[in-house]
Design a protein that fits this description.
The chain has about 250 residues and is mainly α. The protein folds into two domains: about 70 residues, no CATH class; about 150 residues, Four Helix Bundle (Hemerythrin (Met), subunit A) (Up-down Bundle), CATH 1.20.120. About 60% of the residues lie in helices and about 0% in strands. The protein has a two-stranded antiparallel sheet with strand order 1-2. A hairpin with a 2-residue loop joins strand 1 and strand 2.
Length: about 250
């Protein structure tokens, strides 16, 4: 059994998942059918046990036997937030709602695809991060040129260069390494989208990401990078509150 969370957090998550399942499905038959869809087994292993009470599936007892990976997948599918497990995602979702509406919509679509279509989720979060960087680079105070065909890799190099985060001759070697790694992260996300999803044509023998936790890891990476870029941008170019207050001064009413 793969253990990826603390017992304390797992107990909390089990209760939340149980409540979500019982709220979604009023009948015991539907609850049991839903839980059975997650069951996997072979000769020597199963990912959980079906526990019955009075002939019906005991939801709490059953999901308490799930391995950590399966429990997280069920939580994602039921829309249960997991901020104590992977905190960046819920924080990121709230942070981009108002300032990056297109990216927010794309990210929400990605989040909904995590369980059934992990590869689609990866492709969409790549697009969401591209959208955020493009939105930042559109600021008139930023002297840079963005081409419509720029990829996530191109955009990352451009924004780090403007922020003097990489490359920069006066940087400490350690910071240069971090800047280079930042680019490598976004380049890897872009390569996953291009080479390991159905966003570009695939033959029958090509590998396509099909693991929910793998996709969750990528989505969380995008959230972490996006949060940093947004906060750094707003620190360098704070919004003038007076300008905000005068936004509607010219309206004829």
């Amino acid at each position: 059994m793969q253990k990826i969370m603390s017992p304390k957090y797992k107990m909390k998550l089990i209760k939340e998942v149980e409540a979500a399942i019982c709220k979604e499905y009023s009948s015991f038959i539907d609850r049991e059918y839903y839980i059975n869809q997650w069951y996997e087994n072979d000769i020597n292993w199963s990912n959980f046990e079906i526990i019955k009470k009075a002939g019906m599936c005991d939801v709490y007892a059953t999901i308490s036997t799930m391995d950590d990976a399966t429990l997280v997948k069920v939580a994602i599918d039921m829309g249960v937030e997991t901020p104590d497990f992977i905190p960046s995602i819920p924080t990121f979702r709230n942070a981009i709602k108002s300032d990056y509406s297109n990216a927010s919509l794309t990210f929400e679509k990605a989040f909904k695809q995590l369980t059934e279509h992990p590869d689609i989720a990866i492709g969409l979060v790549n697009s969401a991060l591209e959208s955020i960087i493009k939105e930042i680079l559109k600021d008139e105070r930023i002297s840079t040129q963005v081409n419509k065909n720029d990829t996530l890799y191109d955009l990352t190099k451009e924004i780090l260069k403007f922020f003097s985060l990489y490359p920069y001759s006066k940087m400490l070697p350690e910071l240069k390494t971090i800047g280079s790694s930042f680019i490598a992260i976004n380049q890897s996300i872009e390569k996953l989208r291009s080479e390991k999803t159905y966003f570009h044509g695939k033959s029958s023998g090509d590998y396509v990401v099909d693991d929910t936790l793998f996709a969750y890891f990528v989505v969380n990476s995008v959230a972490t990078v996006g949060l940093f870029l947004d906060s750094y941008y707003k620190k360098m170019f704070p919004v003038n509150k007076k300008d905000q207050d005068n936004t509607f001064d010219d309206l004829p009413f």
